[in-house]
Structure formats: structure tokens, C-alpha cells
């Protein structure tokens, strides 16, 4: 029987691999990329993993669609009073995810940076 940390490591590797496949195939077959995204979310739930930042930013939490800027997601910087945040909207289901920008408590943890890590911006 495998130990708990071995199962989590295996699940994490599979999630990474599925998202790499989804990124490669999205331009050719978007439905398959969406399926890979929903499978990655299902694996994370089954292994009881905290969703990694790269999974949060690349897969819609509501419908499981693989998110690509300008194709399946819309990215905006918005203000609400003193608070600034990045708003990411899934263009398939309309789900909006907000990443705060100026919270002093979250200076060390910035999951929204994973949005731009893949595209080099």
C-alpha cells in the first residue's frame, strides 16, 4: 500500500502532465483540452490536494474548461474602492475569479502570477 505523500506526489505529477497536454493540444482540439482540465481538477479533488496555483489559474473551477487568454478567458484589472484586483472570466460559463493585488497580508503569495508564467509576459 502506498503512503499518503506518495499518492499526493503522483497526483501532482499527473495534474502537471494533463495541463501540459492541454496546452499543446488546445489550438487543435479545444474540447479535448477542456476534458484534460476537468480531469486535472477531478484528480486534485480525489487526492484531496490543495489546488496548485497553476491549476487555479488555468482551469475554470465551475465548468472545468482549459483557460487561454483571449480565447476561453477574459482578463481585466479592476478597482473597487481602494482594492485593485485581476478579474478572470471564463467565456464558456461566465464564472469570474478575482485575484487581489494590493493586500498587504498576501505579499508573499500571488497565485495570479501563474497566469502569465506560461506566456512569458
Characterise the protein shown here.
With 121 residues, this protein is of the alpha+beta class. It has one domain (4-105): Immunoglobulin FC, subunit C (Single alpha-helices involved in coiled-coils or other helix-helix interfaces, Up-down Bundle). 41% of the residues lie in helices and 17% in strands. The protein contains 4 helices and 3 strands. It has a 3-stranded antiparallel β-sheet with strand order 1-2-3, with no helix packed on it. A hairpin with a 2-residue loop joins strand 1 (73-80) and strand 2 (83-90). Helix 1 (4-25) runs antiparallel to helix 2 (30-46). The chain is globular, with a radius of gyration of 15 Å. The termini are far apart. The mean pLDDT is 83.
Strand content: 15-25%
Rounded average pLDDT: 83
CATH superfamily: Immunoglobulin FC, subunit C
Task: Using the coordinates above, name the CATH class.
Answer: Mainly Alpha
Number of strands: 3
Number of helices: 4
How far apart, in Å, are the first and last alpha carbons?
43 Å
Q: How is the main sheet built?
A: 3 strands, antiparallel
Widest sheet: strand order? 1-2-3
Shape: globular
- The helix/strand order is HHHEEEH
Could you say what the CATH topology is called? Single alpha-helices involved in coiled-coils or other helix-helix interfaces
Class inferred from helices and paired strands: alpha+beta
Helical content band: 40-55%
What CATH architecture do you see?
Up-down Bundle
What is the total number of structural domains? 1
Low-confidence stretches: none
Amino acid at each position: 500500500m502506498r503512503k499518503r505523500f506518495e499518492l499526493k506526489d503522483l497526483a501532482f505529477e499527473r495534474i502537471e502532465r494533463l495541463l501540459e497536454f492541454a496546452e499543446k493540444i488546445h489550438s487543435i482540439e479545444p474540447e479535448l483540452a477542456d476534458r484534460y482540465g476537468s480531469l486535472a481538477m477531478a484528480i486534485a479533488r480525489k487526492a484531496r490536494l490543495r489546488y496548485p496555483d497553476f491549476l487555479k489559474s488555468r482551469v475554470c473551477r465551475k465548468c472545468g474548461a482549459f483557460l487561454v487568454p483571449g480565447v476561453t478567458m477574459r482578463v481585466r484589472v479592476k478597482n473597487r474602492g481602494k482594492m485593485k484586483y485581476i478579474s478572470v472570466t471564463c467565456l464558456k460559463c461566465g464564472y469570474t475569479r478575482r485575484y487581489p493585488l494590493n493586500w498587504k497580508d498576501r505579499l508573499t503569495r500571488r497565485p495570479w502570477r501563474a497566469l502569465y508564467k506560461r506566456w512569458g509576459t
